[in-house]
Amino acid sequence: MNTQMDSYNSSLSENRLVGWLVSYGLDDLGVAYEIRTGRSFISNKQSSQARMLAVVDSSISSPHLALKASARNKVMVQDIFSDHGSFITRADNNREYPITGPTEIKHGDWVRVGQNVRFQVCIIDGSGR
User: What is the pTM of this model?
Assistant: First the structure.
């Protein structure tokens, strides 16, 4: 894991782990980003803010997508007026939908930010559900 992600993950250690966003397009073995309770953002720029996941891709805005995870393992996402949009493909079908407002993401779904970056959603089935 690179220093940027080490910094991101260590600064969130006080927030409970809810799941991961995993991208196989950024690395053949997969790159996992932790989802922890609270609010975080996906952006194309590195930031000193602890809650920013920086992904280097010219089609990702800064910031691009907001994530909010609850203690009950519910994760909501919302596009933040990005240039190239955010999209969701539900685990139970192959149709991609634009994220146009607050949208719950669930285990097995795929989220695309920008033109190229896709993440598979892996949510822990917590006792709070």
Answer: 0.82
Q: How far apart are CA 129 and CA 119, in angstroms?
A: 23
Would you state the structure tokens that stand for residue 61, as one six-digit string? Answer: 């805005």
Q: What is the pLDDT of residues 36-71, one digit of tens each?
A: 999 999 999 877 766 888 888 899 999 999 999 998
Cβ proximity of 119 and 57 under 8 Å: no
Q: Where are the domains of the chain?
A: 3-123
- What integer pLDDT is reported at residue 67 of this predicted model? 97
Provide the residue type at 80 as one letter. Answer: I
H/E segment holding residue 98:
strand 96-98
* Cβ atoms of residues 42 and 61 within 8 Å: no
User: Architecture of domain 3-123 in CATH?
Assistant: Sandwich (2.60)
| Rounded alpha-carbon distances, angstroms, from residue 17 to 59, 61, 66, 85, 110 | 28, 26, 17, 27, 19
Element (H, E) at 122: strand 117-123
The pLDDT value recorded for residue 76 is 98
